Structure formats: structure tokens, C-alpha cells
Amino acid sequence: MDKAKFMIVDDSPFSIAVIKSILEDNGYDVVSTATNKTEMLQNVIDSKPNFVTMDMTLPGTNGLECTELLRDIDKNIKVIIISSLKDKELLKNAYALKVSGYIQKPIDEEELLNIIKKLIDSDKIYEELQNTQFNIFKEAFADGINKMTKTIVTFGEDSKNSKSEASRGVSCVIGIIGSFPGRLIIDMSMETASKITDTIFNRENKGMDEIINVVSELTNIIAGNGCSVLNRKNSVLGLRLSPPTIFYGNSLHISQTGSDSYTTKIFSEFGEMTLYVGFSKSDKQLIQTNPYF
């Protein structure tokens, strides 16, 4: 991500001074401060922070309402609640708003810096994942096909889009579980799936059940090998697979994983196939100190 830029929102000049000192002493850029909602709304537009520390009690409003207003301006801003108030209901509401962190006053410097580091590292890890994952899964595909059929595949041009696409007839979907949830899809025609099955068994296949089992296992091997390489590169990812799901028939459409989904055509002696892989950031984890609630 870009350099971490902070806005401090707190009605206490003392708290603002303490937080500002901690951040600046550790090399972070405090681009603005605000003591109320009006100042916050003006300053967030002018200073464009990517982090906001947010007090829970503010004149005529509260930190949760202000967080919602910030998200209307920039949904990517990471909000860290720093407040003397902390209970189950507040944490529940903060979680629902996808607040990134929650610290109870008095502020502990190490706790605040640890939360910031985790958030920044998460962005870096995700960026690295996006930069490397598709080539790794393509290599896993080429290697898996080669070992199972003794053939070589080639790839078309990579592309990114989130549009739904028509299936060729058989799609195998595998969910990827971990620090960043994802999904891998391999799509092919029934004829291609049948030819692959015949080649693997060195005989004519015995019908749909056998074809489905082969496509499921092939997809599972490709996804598993790709995830294993990514986990070796960074164990923090902790990627695991959900069981494969097969869809087949006419008029199928493939819904991709979003704007971070990559796709490419695969050319083989069995026919043309398509590989789709996408990961997304998880907003489900609220980092908090003293998490006893």
C-alpha cells in the first residue's frame, strides 16, 4: 500500500497529542486531526488519510456513526477505534462496520503499533499474493496435466475481469480458505473432459461418473499444489481447500470472484480449457487488544 497516512479523530487535545506523538515518533505521517464530525468530514477530503484513529465519544455523535460517514467517502480507509469505552455491544457493532482495530484507553504504544503493523503487513501480503498467485496456479496446471496425461499445454493471454462467462459444459469449482479467501475454477467441454479421462485410464471411460471424478481430482490436485507453493512462500497465508464441486450441462455461466479474478485460456491436445483464480481481502477479523469480551 502507499505510505500510511493518519488522521486522528478525538475530542480530547491530550489524546490527540499522545496519539500524534506515538505515530510520528515511529515514522508515520499524521496528515490531519479532528475534534468533531464537521472537522472530520472536511479534513478527510482534504488530507486523504488511509488510516483513521477514532474516539468513540464525540460531540453530538459517536465513533461508529463517524466510521460510517468515512466509509461513504472512502470505503478503503482503515479505522482503529481508540476509546475508554469497550463492551460486547460496542465490539459487535464495530465488527459489523468492519473496523480494523479496537484499543481501550489509556493508550499503550506497543499495542497501537502492533495493530498498525498487522494491518500494513496484511496489505503487503495480499499485494504479493496477487502479483504471484496466477502464475503459480498456471504452473501447477501445466505440471498436473503433464504428470497425469504426459501432454503439454500452452496458455493464452492473462486477463482480469468480473463478468459472468458462459461455460463450455463442465466446470469444477474449489473454494480456497485462509487469510485471504479465494476460488479456483477449471472449465472445459464434456468432450475435452471425456478425452482427458480416456487418456488417464488408457481406455475408453465408463461414463459420466468416471469423467466427473477425474475432473474433480485433477482440479483438486492443481489447486492443492498451487496452494502448497504459496504457503511455502508465506506460511501466514494458511491456504486450505474446500471439497470440489462439479457443475455440468447446457447454459451454465461462470460467476468470477470479483475484480481480483484472473483468467486465461488453456490450449491442449484434448481441447480448449479455461482457468479462473481469484482471491479477496477478508474483512472479518477485528484486531483488538485485551480481547476478553
Describe the structure.
- The modification 4-aspartylphosphate is found at residue 55.
- InterPro entries: CheC-like_sf (IPR028976), CheX-like_dom (IPR028051), CheY-like_superfamily (IPR011006), Sig_transdc_resp-reg_receiver (IPR001789), ST_Response_Regulator (IPR052048).
- The protein is α/β, with parallel strands linked by helices and 293 residues long.
- The chain has two domains: 5-107, Rossmann fold (3-Layer(aba) Sandwich), CATH 3.40.50; 128-279, Chemotaxis protein chec.
- It is 42% helix and 26% strand.
- It contains seven helices and 18 strands.
- It has helices at 13-25, 37-47, 63-73, 88-96, 109-149, 190-201, 208-233; strands at residues 5-9, 29-34, 51-54, 57-58, 61-62, 78-83, 101-104, 154-155, 159-160, 165-166, 170-177, 182-188, 240-241, 245-248, 253-254, 261-268, 271-279, 287-288.
- Strands 8, 9, 11, 12, 13, 14, 16 and 17 form an eight-stranded antiparallel β-sheet that branches. It has a six-stranded parallel β-sheet with strand order 2-1-3-6-7-18, with helices on both faces. A two-stranded antiparallel sheet has the order 4-5.
- Helix 1 (13-25) links the parallel strand 1 (5-9) and strand 2 (29-34).
- It is elongated, with a radius of gyration of 24 Å.
- The protein starts with a strand and ends in a 5-residue tail after the last strand.
- The model is unreliable at 289-293 (pLDDT under 50).
